[in-house]
Amino acid sequence: RLLIGLFLFPIGIVMTINANLGLSSWDVLHQGMSVSIGSVTMGQASIIVGAVLITTASFFGERLGWGTLANIIIIGLFLDFLLYHQLIPTFTGFIPRFLMLIAGVWVMAVGTYFYMSAELGSGARDSLMVALRKKTKKSVRFIRITMEAIATVIGIILGGTVGLGTVIMVVGFGYCLQLVFKLFRFDISKIQHRFIDHDIKALYHWMKERKNKPDCSHHS
After folding, report:
1. Are 105 and 6 in contact (CB under 8 A)?
2. How far is CA 210 from CA 179, 200, 220, in A?
3. Which of 138, 131, 141, 3 is nearest to 63 (CA)?
4. Distance of CA 208 to CAs 76, 176, 195, 215, Å?
5. Which helix (H) or strand (E) holds 31?
6. Alpha-carbon span 146 to 154, nearest angstrom
7. CB 130 within 8 A of CB 112
8. Residues 12, 115, 121, 192: is their CA dihedral positive or negative?
């Protein structure tokens, strides 16, 4: 589930980019960082933003999972790979570009469901979404739209570009995500992730048991 989600999500991102109707809110932010910093690619900016968001989410009680680390790193790297090798097609007509934009949003929403339902730790943006959902009891739609809007504003300030597609994605992604969760009967407030500290503690206890276990190899 984790790998399927991490495969689908950046494909959806590139589909929205290649639709050329305006970047998604987070990609406006990533582009703005790339423009303002200069030596940073959009994929690298995605990794940086992810690290900042997961740090913020940790203050709300969300812990780090292996899936969280994989999300931060793999999505950014795969995003750069897809963009560099131009593996997703582009179109010139408005209708096919619009359809690609809508399809990309749905692919991102389905990808989000897959890697979150793996319960190995949410992605950085989703960890913050889950934390805010638990704290505020607001809907996924409201929280996600608010996050997308803030990311867009910051991205514009840094030099990112927006368009019709940006508005559609700021509003539409939250709705799509909530609908996908309903279709799969997935309640993010009931997620029980396996976090990295769980595995560290399990490894510690296993090593401790091994150390305290009597050595019977010298007895016949």
Report:
1. no
2. 48, 15, 21
3. 131
4. 38, 47, 20, 14
5. helix 25-37
6. 13
7. no
8. positive
Q: How far apart are CA 25 and CA 137, in angstroms?
A: 23
Phi, psi of 78 (to 5 degrees): -65, -35
In tens digits, the chain (220 residues) has pLDDT values of 999 999 999 999 899 989 999 888 888 999 999 989 888 888 889 889 988 888 888 888 777 788 888 888 888 889 889 988 988 999 999 999 999 999 999 999 999 999 888 888 877 887 888 888 888 888 877 888 888 889 989 999 999 888 898 888 878 888 898 899 999 988 877 777 777 877 888 888 888 888 877 665 555 5
b/e 12-51 (16+ beta carbons within 10 angstroms → b): bbbbbbbbbbbbbbbbbbbbbbbbeeeebbbbbbbbbbbe
- Amino acid 30 reads H
* Two structure tokens written together for 59: 């203050």
Angle subtended at Cα 85 by Cα 79 and Cα 87, rounded to the nearest 5 degrees = 80
Q: CA dihedral in degrees (85, 88, 93, 96; nearest 10)?
A: 180
Inter-CA distances, 12 with 123, 159, 185, 194, Å: 15, 23, 22, 26
Q: What is the pTM of this model?
A: 0.76
CA distance 220 to 185: 58
